[in-house]
Amino acid sequence: MTTATLRGRFQWTVVVPVLAALLLVVTWSSHEHPVTLAAIGAALVGAVLAAVHHAEVVAHKVGEPFGSLILAVAVTVIEVGLILMLMSSGGDAASTYARDTVFAAVMITFNGIVGLSLLVGASKHHLVSFNASGTGSALATVIALAGVTLVLPRFTTSADGGAYTPFQLAFAAVASLVLYGAFVFTQTVRHRDFFLPVTSDRYGRVTGVIRDEDGDDHADPPAAKDAWFSLVLLVVALVSVVFLAKLLSPTIEYGVAAAGLPYGVVGVVIALLVLAPESIAAVRNALRNRVQTSLNLAYGSAMASIGLTIPTIAVAMIWMDGPLTLGLEPVQMVLLVVSVAVAMLSIAPGRAKTLQGVVHLVLLAAFLVVSIQP
């Protein structure tokens, strides 16, 4: 075995899932000590990052449209696993964890990932350009998903407290899957060129799309053995994430309560953790003047967070006790409406300056402030 091969086998993305699984086995029956809990928390974060990495490797190997689905499913497993483990602990805010996490994901993608991408991209390249038709269709899909799953429950009258009846929840789950599936087909099969990075002139006007030598705008796929290796590590990482979250969930709730913070902060923490890899990838693409890819990541993550998480939670509620509150609170609804309006104005021209990035990031800051202090 060569030195390069050995080095590849012992990268952090390989070591972390294995260590996380070993820690899970060792601490399953006894994990109350603060040092143990700190180790579990560190392993949880590392396993999340490693899982997304290996999902991207497998997705690249299988190609589209299945690659996008694999990556989305992997991220959804992480998000749903964290949500369900917190809900199963039966805390005071168990019924709102799903809503708070999904809404936080929407705010972080709409304003955090998009804002950072536009800011760093425009700061380096003066103007950034993207396909307004493709990005606009992604934004429209996310708006429809958020409206059906997060806004409508606050105004229905068949169930109290921002909840859906079982029939309404089933409809929302099916509608979410239909919208997500339709978009994936549009992005990866029917109108793929609308979502490729673009070239532009000095005024930011789009002049064409960027392709690689293979014509697919992707690096060459990994070897089959590397893809299978990543698949095994992906499964190990996902299992570790779900059950490490179960061990850590009482501590998370206790820490939030002890700090005097609202329980909605837990959802923000989960969303930040799950979306960290996408945020890093989006900024890197923006620096390379591929803001279209950054926007694909942002709105695709928001879409998966709603379109796959809500149906999965809906199915899980068959076996879980207690209500599921999905309807947004008034402050959350105002933030969503303002974010949607700003996003539409940012996308419509097909080009953006640093100003648009700053506006989005200020909205993200406003969301974080009212999450910490409503």
Question: What is the strand and helix layout of this fold?
Answer:
Blueprint: H1 3-9, H2 12-27, H3 34-62, H4 66-88, H5 97-125, E1 128-129, H6 132-151, H7 166-190, E2 198-200, E3 206-209, H8 224-258, H9 264-287, H10 291-307, H11 309-316, H12 330-347, E4 351-352, H13 354-372
Antiparallel strand pairs: 1-4, 2-3
Keywords: Membrane, Transmembrane, Transmembrane helix
Membrane topology: Multi-pass membrane protein
Domain Sodium/calcium exchanger membrane region: 35-188, 230-372
Describe the 3D structure.
This is Ca2+:H+ antiporter. It is found in: Membrane. It is a multi-pass membrane protein. The strands form two sheets. This protein has a two-stranded antiparallel sheet. It has a single domain, classed as Up-down Bundle (A middle domain of Talin 1). The protein has 13 helices and four strands. It has about 375 residues and is mostly helical.
Overall average pLDDT: 83
CATH architectural arrangement:
Up-down Bundle
| Strand line-up across the major sheet | 1-4
Query: In the CATH hierarchy, what is the superfamily?
Result: NCX, central ion-binding region
What is the helix tally?
Answer: 13
Shape: globular
Specify the biggest β-sheet: 2 strands, antiparallel
Distance between the termini: 57 Å
CATH class type: Mainly Alpha
Q: Gyration radius, to the nearest Å?
A: 21 Å
What is the fold named in CATH at topology level?
A middle domain of Talin 1
Give, in order, the helices and strands: HHHHHEHHEEHHHHHEH
Helix-strand makeup class: mainly alpha
